[in-house]
Amino acid sequence: MAHPVGADAVIPPRRAPLRERLRLLSLRLRARGRLTVDGRPVVAAGARVSIDRGGRVRLGNGCLLGWGSRVEAAGGTIDVGAGARLGERAVVVALESVTLGRDAVLGDWALACDAGPAWTDPEAPVRSQPLRRRPLRIGDGARVGAHAAVLADVPDGAVIASYAVVTDEVSSP
Length: 173
What we know:
Elements: H1 17-31, E1 35-37, E2 42-43, E3 48-51, E4 56-59, E5 64-65, E6 70-73, E7 77-80, E8 85-86, E9 91-94, E10 97-100, E11 105-106, E12 111-113, E13 115-117, E14 131-133, E15 136-138, E16 143-144, E17 149-150, E18 159-160, E19 165-166
Parallel strand pairs: 1-4, 2-5, 3-6, 4-7, 5-8, 6-9, 7-10, 8-11, 9-12, 10-15, 11-16, 12-17, 16-18, 17-19
Antiparallel strand pairs: 13-14
């Protein structure tokens, strides 16, 4: 994999193997069996994994949860592929299903969520709109720039610009 440069670059933290293992062990204990780990993911300081009842999270081999990133399975499943990277303070929320493909990058302060307002009544406030839930997939090798919000599927190898808001499926690159 070529190392990305620019706004979507996610730099891994300085390695401290013992601390990383302790952070991962702490996450696994708090998850009470709802967190599956394949291989050795890297968990930076301040990264949080929250799994509600009915939720599941799988971390692939070599994936990176950046400093202060949040992974929240609020009843859904989250699958972070091998080599995928979540930047600083990136957020992944699943009410149904979110999949980050192998070597995918979610930039700093970016959001990936599988739910959003259904927009059934244009006169009603957004907070009063019902939620539209559907599985979300960010493809293998896809890159999502910093501060972007992804609410729809992103194909393999696609590049989403910084500050973009993706509400409809992106065409293949």
